[in-house]
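REQUEST FORM: STRUCTURE PREDICTION
Request ID: SP-0412
Submitted by: Lab K.M.
Chain count: 1
Length (residues): 300
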Amino acid sequence: MSKLTIKQQLLNRKLTKVGSLLNKVENLGEPLSSLIIKCSDDRGVQRNGGKLGSRFAPEAIISELSKFELHENKKNISIVEVSSPEHYKKDFSSAQGIQSNKIKQIISRGSPRVVQIGGGHDHIYPLLKAIDGIDKDLLILNIDAHLDTRTDALFHSGTPFRQFSLEAKSKFNLVQLGVRKETNHRTNYIKLNRGMMSFHAFHNEKDYLSILDFISPLITKNTKIVLSLDFDGIDGGDFGAVSATNPYGTPFYLVNSLVNKLKNRIDYFGLYELNPLFDNATNLCAKRAAWLIYQYLIGV
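STATUS: Completed
RESULT:
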């Protein structure tokens, strides 16, 4: 009878955790299960005057996700990196186009649920561009302190939704949740070139219920839902590991409630601008980000 070692005992535990499902994909032509798209670049944040560090978020979040327990058999989760720091360093706009083409190629393989992890919020633009025209009725829910509709000529992490509106083929509704006038330039509110934009408080239970009432008639059987979470939309007391900490943001528990409420209707879930350099010693914010992904991809 072989003698079990502590090392082997600990290794055996990993077989029941999410990490056992994670599969890094190099060949973009491979069939995919549920999908995590990594965008490990924060050049867009730098171009917006923000602090560097969110490029480390995908690895930090996936590391925490891998530690959560499984309670029933699940299909593998494919992980694909689509950003190239060298491309972004040379030509930001060209790099966005390359990334969008990669995402389009990947999702064309079919995947029941797609998670994108940035990096800066600029990475939502290549995702939207990739699904534009394929999905003709988009509902974009953006939880954020900022509208990210700046009118700047040079694009960055604060311009993705206006940038998308300049090129969009699909009908889309952009529902801004938790944004505050204190953190948005007045030009951010200028009407989009294409698409409808609305603004909603997201700070308490009443706001939460009001949001659900508002989006309900916007959702049809053909609607594809994109949930975009810029972590600086969450209250700084709950989530401080961001470039621009929010002194009065959306409580984390309400974000978690929204994810759980809509998880069976969300088609694309993007999480952006966690900065692990500002996380605490226990990686609390990375754990909270991973928690949301767990609810969406696996659930309990």
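NOTES: Strands lie at 22-24, 34-39, 77-81, 114-118, 137-143, 171-177, 196-200, 224-230, 266-272.
Reviewed by: T.R.
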